[in-house]
Amino acid sequence: DSIEEKKREEWMTELPAVRQASLGLGPRKFRAREGPDMSDRSSWTDTPADRARKERDRAMGRVKSDEKRDDEPLPEKSSKRKEKSLMEMHQKKLQKKKK
Questions:
Q1: 0.85 exceeded by the pTM?
Q2: Alpha-carbon separation of residue 19 from 22, 26, 38 (angstroms)
Q3: 9 vs 1, residue with greater confidence
């Protein structure tokens, strides 16, 4: 009557390495924007105990630099002229054709 504890293998509970994710299917052009932050992917594999610990840390005031950055106001767009929308450009083109 030996009861074996069911335990998943490590490869089933952890995410693969970041370098293996692309598999040679990278972009064909230069990236215009910065890619997603892949430094903290632990939310996929967090246990309830990990979530509780992170929540306690957050409540204690241990805020990540990303969260501090998110609280800063965004800089205003310094455009002197508002660009016309596609609809406005299309309407103007139709008006020119009517004349």
A1: no
A2: 7, 11, 11
A3: 9
